[in-house]
């Protein structure tokens, strides 16, 4: 029988060995999720591939959705660490370059991308909207940095939410076969340009 996830906060790794174990778990989940749909991936095989006990896996990730949502955050961080904006790009250019580049990065492994989006969305709809938003805190924090609003006000936060909803919807439509990746990129660029128009002359 499948294990029922406990309603508790996941443990955070503290030592180097714990951090290494958590990374092995995330790497194993990403590798499996790139080959199999999320509903086929079993937590037991993730633990086996990561060479950890199943109890260790559940200590860090109480559910499969929590695991693949964490993989999603890792993928965003990996892309951001390697992303370099163009020297001559304006605010709109930087934001669209980042969001379109992130889309292309995720779509290199579409099966995994679908798993990550499904897991993150499941967590999102399971709680109230005041508690969590799609892809937060990672993507929202990065977008605030890109627009130069680390000390954000309510307008900044609303802008970032709208940017994420635009990007999120375009990627979900692409993964669902409702639009093409090129059409989604056009929509993301247009949405970002319209949303960022009031900011273009401010930062």
Structure explained in plain terms:
The protein has 203 residues and is mainly α. The chain folds into two domains: 16-62, Arc Repressor Mutant, subunit A (Orthogonal Bundle), CATH 1.10.10.60; 65-199, Orthogonal Bundle (Tetracycline Repressor, domain 2), CATH 1.10.357. It has nine helices and no strands. The protein has helices at residues 16-35, 43-50, 54-60, 64-82, 91-107, 110-126, 138-146, 154-175, 181-196. Helix 4 crosses helix 5. It is globular. The termini are far apart. Residues 1-6 and 128-132 have low confidence and may be disordered.
What does the secondary structure layout of this molecule look like, with pairings?
Layout: H1 16-35, H2 43-50, H3 54-60, H4 64-82, H5 91-107, H6 110-126, H7 138-146, H8 154-175, H9 181-196
Please work out how many helical segments DSSP would assign: 9
Give the N-terminus to C-terminus distance in angstroms: 55 Å
What is the CA-based Rg, rounded? 18 Å
The secondary structure category is mainly alpha
Give the number of domains. 2
Mean pLDDT: 87
Order of helices and strands: HHHHHHHHH
Structural shape:
globular
Per the CATH scheme, the topology name of the largest domain is Tetracycline Repressor, domain 2
By CATH reckoning, the class of the largest domain would read Mainly Alpha
